[in-house]
Amino acid sequence: MMPELRRTNQPRNPVVLVSPVADNSAMTWLDESRLSALYPAHLETQSERASRALAHAGFERLVIFSGRERVAFRDDIPYPFVANPYFKAFLPLARHPDCALVFAPARKPELIYMQPRDYWHMAPAAPEGYWLDHFHVRIVTEPAQLDAALPDDLSTTAAIGENILIPERFAAVNDTALLNMLDYQRARKTPYEIECIAAANRRAVPAHQAARAAFLAGAAEFDIHQAYCRAAQHTDHELPYGNIIALNEHAAVLHYQHLDREAPHESRSFLIDAGAACQGYAADITRTWSSDPAFQELIGAMERLQQLLCVAMVAGAEFPVLHDQAHQALAQVLVEADIARGTPEQVYAQGITRYFLPHGLGHLLGLQVHDAGGQLADAAGNAAPPPEHYPWLRLTRRLEPDFVVTVEPGLYFIDLLLNELAADPAAKQINWRRVEQFKPFGGIRVEDNIAVGTAGPRNLTREAFAAVPA
Known about the structure:
It is a single chain. The chain is α+β, with helices and mostly antiparallel strands and 470 residues long. It contains 13 helices and 16 strands. Helix 5 packs antiparallel against helix 6 (221-232). The longest helix has 26 residues, at 32-57.
């Protein structure tokens, strides 16, 4: 059981002091020497996968564009840049628009590196890092030069990207067969990639601790978010996804997207779903806290359920089966907490758990927070749709060694779903007084990032928490 949290009475909108553990500048979350040692084998694996995909789709060469900045409608203010994940798979340039990677099997890849002559914005620095010697690098200063730097004959070349200047020059752009095979292969992470995701977890953990300290101090959602970003040393745009910082009833909104500037009169509970980035790879961590003993006990029950599921993330396991087991275990939690009555088997069979856990157990994690390929049955692109009762399940594949997945069961008190449950014949099984008791707390989610290994699962998130003082 997680320890009971206590908080003293605080004035509304207090000044939030960042706790000592929040100073991530002193944290050794990034080991560049280790990444440097792992990178050559990673690049070799990426090259082999790209070669197989090209042969499968019938092309001889591949050009992957990093992406272009987009501006708001009838404006010149750009949206935050998000790099093409297929580009990031080869080299750690997550903040570099208008670059291109030229790949052909058995040849050293070429990077066309955009370094514009610009006094309005800070131009990218000269390329450097552990990856540099593995590429031919050509520097260009404007988009027209990028196109001119590409090979003259692109009749057997496929391109991957968006807003390509002259798409008609290529044999195909975003060919489905090519992308499906790359996506399917990408689920298995290289040791380099697993280290990047582990480092992102190490970066996120002190920020989670800073956010928890701010919650206990009575801070508003906005101030908690600021404490998190400072500790992670991320701006909003550098986060792999928008932080979910949810106090009280807001925790019942699965992707709660706002940040209240005013602290609530009483901070009863806090759900934080927030990650960090390392070399283009993401961490995705959720924790729930409460100052109420009864709700904290319910959090403890979900924590134990989640840890049992983490241990079950082994090679050969079917993820939809694991998801179904999560619902069976949740039925027992609901009965033991006197939220639902009857046996756990009856509660599960009547579908009651689906009103309290409407999302999937987890998803692939890596270059994207919801990494591609989770619903592919094979490299040919045949689909593996989610089960009818669980339409939001993002991962439907059998787990293999070196998959990295999230495990994030939840228990929520969502008005919309509770109203549907009230009209269900199973409503008579519900202790509605108990539901009303817990509704002001919103909900619970606990999420870790798991690397599936041949010797069993490796919990990257718990490793990171264990390495940092509480």
